[in-house]
């Protein structure tokens, strides 16, 4: 969210951008039929058009479910919380939930953030989009 | 698929090795004893085998050839099938179709997997999948299903843990199970957490294993005598893609497959005497009770608690111990279930026999893939 995160290595830079107003998730909108996608679809799964433009998605959503993950492949900072966030436009996003488990509940409102979630093979921090309680 | 023009297919031989950890053996070394057992049990001659279908998810290229050449059985078409946890149940479906269609009179279906080659921990998932790159692991996917189910239906962590207790009560009676011991509710609850609300005992163990069946036309089966178990339905389906809302308390893929399989077999859930279903994690068993129609939505714990799904109950589920206890070498699971149910229907399941079972169901589903309930699901109905 701050200049610091600009220096961090993003797991998948195509999924999120750091705007001045805060991070924004990047999805897709089909120019032919309007269907939205996350991640941005190369081909529209509703109409097979390849004319899918990048679209900034809503930054708040509702936590559908979550789990505290204690066992994961090397590189992740365990334990971490993983959850599905439903955005107001209907898209569902898998995300790290950056909050203590005690502060997390199903159906709570969450908002987009950026955070460090692990390290790469060289030991450098890896960051990605996350959600935090709104 | 309609069955009008298809021939009856029977299971004429079964083979299974006790599941476990065999890091010093090759995949072929793990698998050939199961294939040999199935062939010898069937009474068919190796030269009668018209085709081989081999299911493995992570066994590498030409697994079927590597296994079969060890037995000196070669030259026929050998088809290798990968469909994640449904690999060998998908191979079973192809084997069934090849006999039902008249292509072959006798085929071997084998499932084999060696997971110890990856070390321990959660299964290696496909890194091209964007959810995997954001930290998804299979136990987390099921744990999120569990959390939502608990939220919607009031299921508690203690109640969920009872699924593991029941699985190991059954598995303790099965000499082929990877974990042959009972576990108490306290032990399940106190074990180390994997993906909350799951502790270690909520998760199937990883390991190695192999299973095989010989399928034959009814004509061949009559010659062999005493081979009365037929495949009444064979169903393979894939998940429906969406990147939008999904009800994670309802396994639509399994529900769809179960409807199709029951329709093909001309039966309903009330006709099932024994079922081997894909209990990779505790919540899965409960959700699949509902998807198969053994009970209504939200009623699964009540069914478990009633004892109906335990040995001696009205619809014993996973008398073998299931994936939680027998183990889940993923590509081997589907055929292992087929071996189990065939032996149940033939009355030779030993200490975990379901008395008088005439109709059995197997169900293998899985594959963690973004946007799908699961990648694949294969359901078979067996009857005698
Ligand atoms: Zn479109």
TrEMBL record, chain A:
Tell me which domain of life the UniProt entry assigns to the organism this sequence originates from. Answer: Bacteria
Q: Which Pfam families match?
A: OB_ChsH2_C (PF01796), zf-ChsH2 (PF12172)
Signal peptide interval: none
Coiled-coil regions listed: none
Which residues does the UniProt record annotate as the domain ChsH2 C-terminal OB-fold? 57-113
- Residues in ChsH2 rubredoxin-like zinc ribbon domain copies: 23-49
* PANTHER family assigned: BLR3430 PROTEIN (PTHR34075)
Q: What is this protein called?
A: Zn-ribbon domain-containing OB-fold protein
Organism name:
Xanthobacter tagetidis
């Amino acid at each position: 969210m701050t200049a610091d995160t600009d220096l961090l290595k993003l797991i998948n830079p195509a999924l999120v951008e750091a705007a001045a107003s805060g991070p924004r998730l990047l999805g897709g909108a089909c120019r032919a039929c309007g269907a939205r996608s996350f991640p941005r679809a190369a081909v529209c799964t509703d109409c097979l058009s390849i004319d899918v433009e990048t679209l900034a998605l809503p930054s708040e959503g509702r936590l559908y479910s979550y789990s505290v993950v204690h066992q994961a492949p090397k590189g992740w900072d365990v334990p971490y919380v993983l959850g599905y966030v439903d955005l107001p436009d209907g898209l569902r996003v898998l995300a790290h939930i950056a909050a203590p488990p005690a502060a997390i509940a199903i159906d709570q409102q969450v908002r987009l953030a950026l955070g460090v979630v692990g390290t790469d093979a060289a030991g450098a921090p890896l960051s990605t989009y996350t959600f935090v309680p709104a | 698929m309609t069955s009008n023009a298809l021939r009856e297919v029977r299971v004429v031989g079964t083979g299974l090795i006790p599941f476990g950890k065999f890091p010093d053996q090759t995949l072929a070394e793990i698998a050939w004893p199961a294939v040999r057992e199935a062939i010898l049990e069937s009474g068919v001659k190796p030269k009668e085998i018209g085709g081989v279908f081999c299911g493995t998810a992570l066994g590498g290229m030409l697994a079927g050839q590597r296994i079969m050449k060890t037995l000196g059985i070669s030259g026929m078409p050998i088809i290798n099938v990968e469909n994640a946890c449904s690999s060998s149940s998908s191979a079973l479906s192809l084997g069934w179709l090849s006999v039902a269609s008249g292509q072959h009179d006798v085929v071997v279906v084998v499932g084999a997997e060696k997971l110890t080659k990856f070390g321990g921990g959660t299964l290696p998932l496909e890194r091209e999948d964007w959810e995997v790159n954001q930290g998804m692991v299979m136990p987390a996917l099921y744990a999120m299903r569990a959390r939502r189910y608990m939220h919607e239906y009031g299921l508690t962590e203690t109640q969920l843990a009872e699924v593991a207790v029941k699985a190991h009560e059954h598995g303790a009676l099965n000499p082929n199970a990877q974990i042959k011991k009972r576990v108490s509710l306290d032990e399940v609850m106190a074990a180390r957490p994997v993906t909350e609300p799951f502790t270690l005992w909520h998760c199937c163990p990883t390991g190695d294993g192999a299973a095989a069946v010989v399928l034959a036309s009814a004509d061949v089966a009559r010659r062999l005598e005493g081979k009365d178990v037929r495949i009444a339905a064979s169903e393979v389906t894939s998940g429906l893609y969406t990147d939008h809302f999904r009800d994670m308390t309802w396994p639509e893929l399994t529900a769809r497959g179960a409807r199709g399989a029951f329709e093909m077999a001309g039966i309903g859930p009330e006709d099932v005497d024994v079922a081997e279903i894909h209990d990779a994690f505790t919540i899965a068993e409960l959700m699949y009770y509902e998807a198969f129609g053994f009970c209504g939505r939200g009623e699964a714990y009540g069914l478990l608690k009633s004892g109906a799904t335990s040995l001696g109950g009205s619809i014993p589920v996973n008398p073998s111990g299931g994936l939680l206890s027998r183990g889940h070498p993923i590509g081997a699971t589907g055929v292992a279930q087929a071996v189990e149910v065939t032996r149940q229907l033939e009355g030779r399941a030993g200490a975990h026999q379901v008395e008088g079972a005439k109709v059995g169901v197997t169900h293998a589903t899985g594959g963690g893939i973004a946007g799908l309930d699961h990648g694949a699901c294969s359901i078979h109905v067996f009857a005698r």
